[in-house]
Amino acid sequence: MRVLFVTPECYPLVKTGGLADVSAALPPALNAAGADVRLLLPGYPAVLDGLSNLHEVGELITDLPGCDRARLRIGRTPDGVLAYALDAPALFNRPGNPYLGPDGKDWPDNAMRFAALSWAAAGFAAEEGYDPWWRPDVLHGHDWQTGLVPAYLALRPDRFAGPRRPGTVLTIHNIAYQGWFGAWMMGDVGLPSSAFRVDGVEYYGGIGYLKAGCFYADRLTTVSPTYAHEIQTEEQGAGLQGLLAGRADTLSGILNGVDYAVWDPARDPHLPARYGAGDLGGKELCKAELQSAFGLDRRADAPVAAVVSRLTWHKGLDLVLEAAGHWLSWGGQLVVLGNSEPGLEGGFKQLAQANPQSVGVRIGYDEALSHRIQAGADLFLVPSRSEPCGLTQMYALKYGTLPLVRRTGGLADTIVDANPAAAADGSATGFQFVNANAQELIWALRRAVTLYRRPGRWQAMQRHAMTRDFGWHRPAEEYMELYRGVMGRV
Q1: Which residues pair with 337 in a beta bridge?
Q2: Best label site of 50, 175, 412, 446, fewest CB within 10 Å?
Q3: Which CATH number characterizes residue 58's domain?
Q4: Glycosyltransferase as a keyword (predicted)?
């Protein structure tokens, strides 16, 4: 089974969020399960520099949207997975964020850039495929940047017809990001005008890249079972709920996994001390180091709550600001790593300035520091208003840092609340609250600090949390079954 995994990000080559982690960890798991998975990535400078043994494959590509000269190159990721890079300098030879220019706004040609990525993926299915030695059975695209892949196969048989059409899968990692562009670009991105209709690529008067993928893909997936249900509702469907509800029989929720080769406190090279469920002594040293790194009082008895996130309203971080006074009054400390909305960045900076011995804030992102925060904190906060899957709460479980989450999406699927029944039978792994308001978060924090003052019960929950297995082997088997079904229908 040959699968082309089409993605705009892959850790450690390029990363803006959890999609990069999934793109790095899922292909090796699929290969271990018996597939032949290769990646297709935009040829960003970091990608071209980061792939080993890079060399050209196939002929010069002269018909990409927005670019008349491009090369396909192939190499290996740091994990050893074969990866194609679409080397189109006019589109991808740009430093920094892959989607945003130096002014912090979207690159004005993003429509062309990711149409080209989708076009290149579809090109693997053509009679004269871009790689003459390898033809995929399945094209698996990720998020709006790849939404035109199934559309091109359906709408441009004149260009992409081959001996056997691959099955198409589209995974929605976050439905809030949809890729909407002006209708006047239909011809520029190689779409026929006849496709500009509701039963096609038209979306609120423009071209919807994610909508196109949701309409034309053979199968749709998203990154947790609960989120698969939520995106069919008006509250969280972001305008696509009707289409997704109509395709419910082709929509699956497959929970993301964790790469335990990267996220494991027993062998994490970023930590000052390593530890496991059988011996938590190293975690105490990690906590002391974290307090020192953020300039906090080194108090073993102070529960440290942590945030590693984009600082946005969507992530519920305004609720943390509202609740912080209560947490600090109970003797708690808070560390924050992230950036995004200036108002929230400023709010956390002010909180730290007013409470320098109890609150530490770093604006930006630091991969090594994120590992040290997971290891050194006691409580990990994910109060998101919506969360398709979430990975940080699963990392926290492995590090014995109990997650406190809002009950939504993958957070609901991965964390067992410490309610009386779960606490009694030992199945609890963290704390949940239901409604996105500060009062419910405060009550959940109160429950957490009360349990923290009972070290025996707290450590028992830590050890249980650390035994939870969210490795990629189970999701990989689910994807393999899905691929087999897609191959059988086309």
Answers
A1: 308, 362
A2: 446
A3: 3.40.50.2000
A4: yes
Domain encompassing residue 445: 281-466
* Residues 240 and 386 reside in one and the same domain: no
Q: Is 15 annotated as a binding residue?
A: yes
Give the C-alpha separation, 208 to 130, whole Å.
26
Pair 392, 370 in one domain: yes
Q: Residues 388, 394, 397, CA angle at the centre, nearest 5°?
A: 150
* Whether 335 and 230 share a structural domain: no
* Contact indicator for 309, 392 with CB cutoff of 8 Å: yes
Phi-psi region of 180 (alpha: psi -120 to 50; beta: other; left: phi over 0): beta
The rounded distance, in Å, linking the Cα atoms of 443 and 326 is 10
Which strands sit side by side in the sheet containing 402-406, from one edge to the other?
A: 359-363, 333-338, 304-308, 379-382, 402-406, 431-433
Q: What is the pTM of this model?
A: 0.93
pLDDT digits (tens, 9 = 90+) for 122-137: 999 998 889 989 999 9
pLDDT tens-place string over residues 54-86: 999 999 999 999 998 999 999 999 999 999 999
Q: H/E element holding 477?
A: helix 473-487
Q: What is the pLDDT of residues 141-193, one digit of tens each?
A: 999 999 999 999 999 999 998 888 999 999 999 999 999 999 999 999 999 99
Residue 344 included in any domain: yes
